[in-house]
Design goal:
homotetramer, 208 residues, alpha+beta, five-stranded mixed β-sheet, 7 helices, 5 strands
């Protein structure tokens, strides 16, 4: 445990830096009076007990944990509309090779999980300057709408309560609520389009 | 404007204190390993331009603004489930006459607005100790689920863009998305009940 | 330990609230473009190990700890000049009987400790609204200049290293540095007076 | 003004990132139960009015301001002891060419200003990823003890009041207080050495 406390120090530092960096993007758009595709940002370092549990579950040797568990450091970016997810993705790609390196992506928006889970994941490599030199760590960025996040939070609590062995009837309930969350995102997206279309119409009129 | 900057100082202070107080409730439940009915808390002081606009709209004389505009200081408490809203309400009522006084309540959960808006509002009076003595101010606490909050945020942007004169077809779209948000809350509530029922069943079995 | 974790919850809440309240005073003066007697504010809850150690040292029975150890919750207010300490004291007295109650005061400015320690202490009773009702706790407010705080921080580290059994030669060194800190405060106070006098002279001239 | 608001956005972002990074060093030492040479960190972006004033004073053309005014973004690192300043300097040099580049250094510790001012300055170039691409900005890091900082804060207020035209008698007072601050640092440094020597003696004894 003691040893893990030290191993996790650069991960905590990375989360601190990445939260500040993504929150700054939102602040930047706001200061320019522009629409921000980022609504809010959270971050956390996985608890030691959860790391060890995950390693056991997937048969990962303790010495490989830092290479094979990619979400020890986790950043979550919440968007108002599904379209915004792809704008955030572009912002991350634009800094690839600069202050971070993209390792790979997982698109659970177009390929939602059986459970109903939807989100876009980007695994990155991020260099941290510690008091003992540079360390490169892996981090997972999850990009999702507010509705996707709401559902995922509930599913996480349910999973935790049933220790990943959710009864079939509750699984069904979760799927139904995932569909309700999805419908909400679809309805919202239609408003976004209408609002933007209405604005374009207005500008067209003004220019003639 | 200059004068307003000074008038708003105790309101900013009240928001700072109330945010810390309601966030502490969440922290308390977490530290006790208990379920918190509060998911997160935000707060803001209304901008001077919005205060003046509202006063004009409702024909409020400038000298009565602090008595008649009740949401100059606004606190928003977000819950995971609709049931939690009433638990938060009980927590507020328990401190009535202590560090705050309840003025009145508006139940937009059972009486949703025509627009589709749902939330529970509590207007309170809150004493602030300033460098120049005590000042009693009014504040509005809005209690809502994450889905209600998501919808209200979008509606607010749309209202802002159309300056409260939303076209009929967009009003309809907003109503449809309000219904989708409501359905999501209903689905979520069913899971909450099932999870709690399952737990009770488990405890019954364990005790026999 | 587990039990202590719960006992300390309202103390942590009190510290959160009191920090926000005293920082707000500073913010208020700044917004009014006035000089703030408060430079910065810190706060902490005593660690369980330190509480138990202190109880043993003074022969305090465990069930009396909350009544007899007055600094479980500690707030520290730092001032630029010695004069400011008394202005902060007036601000605290002005809210006595409102959101806090003064229990008693300890003036280590005019009666400095043998070690060289100088600060003004105010013991207060503060009501906290928890999820399980109101609880009245004791808290200690320490008011000091930046130089007093600098010295006290160093003395604390030295005490910690020598477990309160500081060798005589180091005690002497500490006293000499306490004198240097005191001289710095005296020099600074003279500048404050000169600056204020110069301003008064200027105003006198302007008005004739 | 409007334009300046946008120019300053990456500077504000840089300050946010650099504060998190240097605070993380302190947190790292603390988590490892080691002494941290960093006591606390502050940061600020120069106000537009001060930038323009400085440009006028030094005859800097508006289009060269970002290249020639090096302290638009300013980070301040406070240490307990003078020795710590050089340890912080080593930490900054260790990341030169990684997340920042050192441009040059100004040693006002060994070459104190006539006014009495003492501090170690490092001018760096720092890359910021904005929503519109990468931007390299200049920033000034000031490293100083708590006593140096205390004095510098007072001198800044005095300068501000007298608009950089301080009367001779007050200049003298400031110099005397700078000496008092310097003596305090010297006394403190002696304690640090004694504490460390005492510890070494203890370890020597233990190992024989």
């Amino acid at each position: 445990m003691r040893q893990w406390k030290n191993i996790l120090i650069p991960y905590e530092q990375a989360i601190g830096e990445l939260k500040v960096k993504f929150k700054a993007i939102r602040a930047e758009y706001r200061k320019r009076n522009e629409y921000s595709p980022i609504e809010f940002v959270t971050g956390r370092v996985k608890r030691v007990s959860s790391i060890i549990e995950k390693a056991k579950k997937y048969g990962i040797d303790e010495k490989n944990i830092e290479q094979e568990i990619e979400d020890i450091a986790g950043i979550r970016i919440m968007c108002q509309f599904e379209d915004d997810i792809y704008r955030v993705l572009e912002l991350i790609k634009a800094r690839d090779g600069k202050d971070l390196t993209i390792v790979y992506e997982k698109d659970y928006i177009n390929n939602q999980k059986d459970s109903g889970y939807r989100s876009y994941h980007v695994i990155i490599r991020y260099p941290v300057q510690t008091a003992y030199g540079e360390k490169n760590i892996l981090a997972e960025i999850q990009i999702r709408t507010l509705a996707m996040n709401f559902w995922a939070t509930i599913e996480h609590s349910v999973n935790y309560k049933y220790k990943n062995d959710i009864p079939e009837n509750i699984k069904l309930r979760l799927k139904k609520s995932a569909e309700a969350a999805h419908r909400l995102d679809e309805e919202m997206l239609k408003i976004r389009d209408e609002v933007i279309n209405a604005q374009k119409l207005f500008e067209l009129k003004s220019n003639t």
